[in-house]
Design goal:
With 339 residues, the chain is of the alpha/beta class. The chain is 37% helix and 16% strand. The chain contains 13 helices and twelve strands. An eight-stranded parallel sheet has the order 3-2-1-8-7-6-5-4. It is elongated.
């Protein structure tokens, strides 16, 4: 099984501070994430002045005006390049979520290796098409979306790039934080079967349990918010993991991935010794003289599994001892003459 790709969603948890953003990159690498992801937008390209903030954003920031909140959380092109270079130096992949066509183009020029579109943009046809046309691996989050809306977005992807290879769809519940009852993790295998695409999980729940469960259900990508401190001001910190918890999540994901193995049932090498000592063989229950035909009361099934298997009982009964066989002997076919 391919290893799960773990994304540390730094998002806007830098609070507009490039030094904090750089520290988030380091924390993501130290926690074992495969990539750290930010968000690329300009407030004026995204919302109109006076647009309201979501309830969770108001709770965390006190901001009533979404435009004003987002303006403080922008990263400049120069800061994007600084983050990319820093990630290259410390050994973690950098990429970002574009919220405009210009942002897609800027990230491509910067040299990112993949593009991720957020749930809110799944109905934004022009943006989906531009992201798909880059031919970069594409991650499409599906919070708030119906299956029909997901399929529609994938038709735009197909039209723009000529295929849907290297497209991963993320199951997501767009609530911050999302309650346990709203997660609907069983949608992951359903989506994978219906769409015939890899499906991951963008986790907005509290704790690490949902991400671990998602991996057990077949998620190939896990995205989770990372913060240095959940008490910092900002819209997403409270629904994020601090570095130690993020590292625990990654360790759990790696372990569960190893546990899942392959989608087939067969003995593994570690079971060979157990099979030898835990299974049984046909053995002599009494002393059997040479030339005697074996009757059921003369044999039994006992451990270890180093001789004739119990499944061969009917064949063993009636066979003739080639030589004297002491009681307790594990029977082998070369001791017997089969009629």
């Amino acid at each position: 099984m391919a290893e799960v790709f773990v994304i540390a969603e730094a998002g806007v948890n830098h609070n507009g501070d490039i030094d904090l953003a750089l520290r988030l990159c380091e924390a993501a690498r130290e926690a074992g994430a495969d990539a750290v992801k930010f968000q690329t937008f300009r407030a004026e390209d995204l919302v109109v002045p006076g647009a309201p903030t979501a309830a969770y954003q108001q709770r965390q920031t006190g901001e009533q005006d979404q435009f004003s909140m987002l303006r403080k959380l922008e990263l400049s092109p120069e800061q994007h390049e600084q983050l990319l270079r820093h990630c290259q130096r410390i050994g973690i992949e950098f990429f970002s979520t574009p919220f405009s066509i210009a942002a897609v183009d800027m990230l491509v020029r910067l040299g990112v290796r993949r593009v991720k579109l957020p749930s809110g943009e799944i109905t934004h046809r022009a943006l989906v098409e531009r992201a798909a046309a880059t031919q970069l691996p594409l991650i499409l989050s599906t919070g708030m979306a119906t299956m029909d809306e997901i399929r529609e977005a994938l038709t735009w992807v197909q039209a723009a790039r000529g295929h849907t290879r290297e497209v991963t769809v993320l199951h997501c519940t767009s609530a911050y934080p999302a309650s346990d009852g709203a997660l609907n993790l069983r949608a992951i295998p359903v989506m994978a079967s219906a769409l015939a695409l890899p499906v991951g999980y963008s986790d907005h729940s509290v704790g690490i349990e949902a991400s671990l469960a998602a991996v057990s259900l077949g998620a190939t990508v896990i995205e989770k918010h990372l913060t240095l401190d959940t008490t910092l001001p900002g819209p997403d910190h409270a629904a994020s993991l601090e570095p130690s918890a993020f590292a625990a999540m990654v360790a759990g994901i790696r372990r569960i991935s190893a546990m899942l193995g392959e989608a087939r049932k067969e003995p593994v090498p570690e079971e060979r010794d157990a099979a030898r000592v835990a299974r049984r063989s046909i053995v002599a229950a009494v002393d059997i003289p040479a030339g005697a035909a074996l009757r059921p009361e003369m044999i039994a099934c006992r451990r270890p599994a180093t001789g004739i298997a119990p499944r061969e009982w009917d064949r063993a009964v009636g066979s003739v001892a080639r030589e004297p066989i002491p009681a307790g002997t594990v029977l082998q076919w070369d001791l017997l003459q089969v009629p």
